[in-house]
Amino acid sequence: MRVVSGKFGSRSLKPVPGSKTRPTTDKVKESLFNMIGPFFNGGTFLDLYAGSGSVAIEAVSRGIDKAILVDHQYLAIKTIKENVEMTKEKDSFQVYKMDSDLALEKFSNDNAKFDFIFLDPPYKDQKMVEQLEYIKKSSLLQENGIVICETDDNVNLQDDVDGFSLIKQKKYGITIISIYKIKG
C-alpha cells in the first residue's frame, strides 16, 4: 500500500493489522481520484471510515488543505497516526477515534463544512443511505461538495438517494465507487 501521486507520491503506508479493516487498493484509489479530479487547489476532505488513512493522505498529497479522519477502532487510529507522521505535515490532518454517526453529529454541531466526504464502511455494515440523508439534513457539504461511496457489488445504492443525484459510478472488480452531489 502506498501513496499513488502528489507530494507524498510513492511513499509506503502501513496497513491496519488484523482482518477488521479492508484497505482500498491502490488501483481503486487511483481510479477514485481520477473520477473526482486528479489534483486539488485546497478544500477539506472527511474520511468517515478511515482505516489506515490512505485515502485521506492521498487527498492531501494531491492538494487538499485539510483531511479529517474518523475511525472507531484503536488499531486503525494507531496506524493512521503512524501514516500521518510519515507525511511530516501533521497540521494537515485531524484524527478522531469515534463512531461514524457520533462524528457526523459532532461535525454538524460544530457547523463544519466539507468539500469531499468519503464513505467506505465495512461492507457488511452498510448504512450509507441514512448517513447521506444526515449529511444533507445537517448541511455538512460545501455548496459544490460531493460524497464518494465505496461499496461491493452486493450493495445496491440507488441512482438518486433522497436529496442527492448520482453523478458518476464505476465498478472495479467487486468494488463500486459511486459519487453523489446534492440536488439543486
Give a short summary of the structure.
This protein has five helices and seven strands; from the N terminus they run αβαβαβαβαβββ. With 184 residues, it is α/β, with parallel strands linked by helices.
Q: Compute the gyration radius: what is it?
A: 15 Å
The SSE order reads HEHEHEHEHEEE
Secondary-structure-derived class:
alpha/beta
Number of helices: 5
* Shape designation: globular
Helix content bin: 25-40%
What's the CATH C level?
Alpha Beta
The CATH topology label is: Rossmann fold
Question: Could you say what the CATH architecture is?
Answer: 3-Layer(aba) Sandwich
Compute the number of structural domains. 1
Keywords: Methyltransferase, Transferase
InterPro entries: DNA_methylase_N6_adenine_CS, RNA_MeTrfase_RsmD, SAM-dependent_MTases_sf
Organism: Apilactobacillus apinorum
Protein name: 16S rRNA (Guanine(966)-N(2))-methyltransferase RsmD
